[in-house]
Predict the 3D structure of the following.
Amino acid sequence: MNLLLYGAPGSGKGTQANMLRSHFGIPHIATGDMLRAEIAAGTPLGRQAQPILAAGKYVSDDIMIEVVRGRLGRPDCEPGFIMDGFPRTVPQAVALDGLMADLGKRFDRVIYLEVPVDELLHRLSGRLVCPQCQRTYPPQTSACEADGSELAQREDDKPEAVRPRIEIYLEKTVPVLDHYRGGGLVSEIDGRGTIEDISRQVLAAANGKVRA
Ligand code: AMP
């Protein structure tokens, strides 16, 4: 099962991807997490990406396409995968079509978590994240419910980066949805509501039902 999770920063993609990974036992490919791992390891890519992430901008298409090409070719993606955070631009979407075709794969479903912009701004400002498992929490949460780790604020969840992230999403990433709409693969899910209710709808969509 190959799934594409689409939505703005703060729409709940990471939370739903974790649920889908546990449910289907397939890897969660999150390009943002991959870049943060490169930054933490101090690799040349990490050093190049760090100021771009901190400013809420996008890493270049060429770099991102190579990152995803390397990841999708790994054997753990054979039974399927959950793609999160890519493609973020139309050129990335076109390149992903080619990559998938080369690998003999196709997406079973594109799941769009729809959240209005004012709600996204509210959710991202002050959001906390577990540095171990990447789960996100509202402000003032004391520790990660899953592993007890102390929570931190992502550099790009600081107020000065939140608005640029939403602006670049509206400009560059919203057109990506049209790229997939024609194929009849998109399930639109209201990303407001309880995590449990949204998870139920996401699972139904992944299992091929258009509405839960
Ligand atoms: P995320 O965790 O998905 O919100 O990604 C965090 C940051 O990583 C983004 O704000 C971008 O700076 C960078 N990034 C992640 N995925 C991509 C992508 N597909 N294209 C360009 N930049 C990306």
